[in-house]
Design a protein that fits this description.
The protein is mainly beta and about 130 residues long. The protein has one domain (about 5-125). It contains three helices and nine strands; from the N terminus they run βαββββαββββα. It has helices spanning about 15, 65, 120-125, and strands spanning about 5, 25-30, 35-40, 45-50, 50-60, 70, 80, 90-100, 105-115. It has a five-stranded mixed sheet with strand order 5-8-9-7-6. The mean pLDDT is about 90.
């Protein structure tokens, strides 16, 4: 079964993301029986479901940390696809995966996505949140 989770676009983040993430046509997460694929404008990250070892609801975030293009954390190489300051879901991977660069040089141990319903995404992946 395939499920689609659209990103939660909020102001003022939406103004900054228009150039990068666009709208629900170009910013969404798809989960099927085998894989998760996150799309964020020109960026895409895909991994097998078995590679996802944790899903944690996070947020709120500071505007300067989420507005604009995909974000690479210099602290842990994590990747963020964000369209709101409210809340998101941080997915932790068993093995780091490519995502921010087209050559796959950078590999990410985690991905944060600000979908409209992070709890539903966590549940679709087999994780439960308190």
């Amino acid at each position: 079964m395939t499920q689609r989770f659209d990103f939660d676009f909020s102001r003022p983040v939406q103004r900054w993301n228009k150039l990068f993430a666009g709208n629900s046509q170009s910013a969404y997460v798809v989960v099927d029986d085998d894989a998760l694929t996150a799309h964020f404008g020109p960026w895409m990250l895909t991994t097998t479901r078995s590679n996802i070892v944790d899903a944690t609801i996070t947020g709120p975030y500071r505007l300067w940390r989420v507005a604009g293009p995909a974000r690479l954390s210099l602290a842990d190489r994590g990747l963020t696809f964000a369209t709101t300051t409210r809340t998101g879901l941080c997915l932790t991977f068993r093995s780091p995966v490519p995502g921010i660069d087209p050559l796959g040089i950078f590999r990410h141990p985690n991905l944060t996505v600000t979908v409209k319903d992070p709890r539903a995404l966590a549940t679709a992946l087999g994780f439960t949140e308190p």
